[in-house]
Amino acid sequence: MARQLTFDWPVGVSLEASDFFVSEANQAAFRMVGDPARWPQGKLLLTGPEGSGKSHLARVFAGARRAPIVGLSGLGARPSETALVVEDVDRMTPAQEEPLFHLHNHMIALGLPLLMTARTRPVTWGMRLPDLASRMQATVPVQIAPPDDALLEAVLMKLFADRQVRPPAALPRYLATRIDRSYSAAQGIVEALDRRALLTGKSVSLRMAADILQEDSFDDR
């Protein structure tokens, strides 16, 4: 039987506030991000692994505060006059350290909230600018923890929805009890199921999931 051609179409990820599922694993982060009055010096560092919802939660904050979201490449732009979100600060290059340092000072001087996201805490970043290192290490961190059962099921359902895949109702729980309890594992199995469905022309099913999980080529870690 001939297999269908498949293409890597962009996935339409929904980052609306109503799509953010709160559980014990991310409740502390959700509450802290939503209450800038509790941030010492108006700064907060939101940490968590890839796929944990950092960008989603940052966009919830940005929407509520009408705050721009900038990447590291935008740090040298016109100083913000509102709350601000800077994503992936742990990926900064040495050349981006000084602009981030000046941004810290600018936001503190104006009393504006500064939310930053990163995969890890500053102690692991290897910053070369001592003044920035001290400011980052003094910034209060809040972590999105590894997913609990409820959150892992919700993450799986959202990943399917982002790909416009309608799985059987029992599939998210079935997968949650069989893959590693991590955001990357959830992404991996949903991607594998979506691709298998496109290749075979069949709907995503429990049987398809069982077959993929048993294959040596599937690595959910």
Give the key terms.
single chain, 221 residues, Rossmann fold, 5-stranded parallel β-sheet, 8 helices
The CATH homologous superfamily of the largest domain corresponds to P-loop containing nucleotide triphosphate hydrolases
**Rg over CA atoms:** 20 Å
Q: What's the shape?
A: elongated
Count of extended strands: 5
What is the residue-averaged pLDDT?
A: 87
CATH architectural label of the largest domain: 3-Layer(aba) Sandwich
Number of helices: 8
Approximately what portion of the residues adopt beta-strand conformation? 5-15%
Strand order of the largest sheet: 2-3-4-1-5
Give the count of structural domains: 2
CATH class of the largest domain: Alpha Beta
Structural class: alpha/beta
The helical percent reads 40-55%
Uncertain runs are: 1-14
Summarize the main sheet: 5 strands, parallel
The N- to C-terminal Cα distance equals: 32 Å
Sequence of secondary-structure elements: HEHEEHEHEHHHH
Task: Give a description of the structure.
This protein is α/β, with parallel strands linked by helices. It is 42% helix and 8% strand. The chain folds into two domains: 26-143, P-loop containing nucleotide triphosphate hydrolases (Rossmann fold), CATH 3.40.50.300; 147-214, Helicase, Ruva Protein, domain 3. The protein has eight helices and five strands; from the N terminus they run αβαββαβαβαααα. The chain has a five-stranded parallel β-sheet, sandwiched between helices.
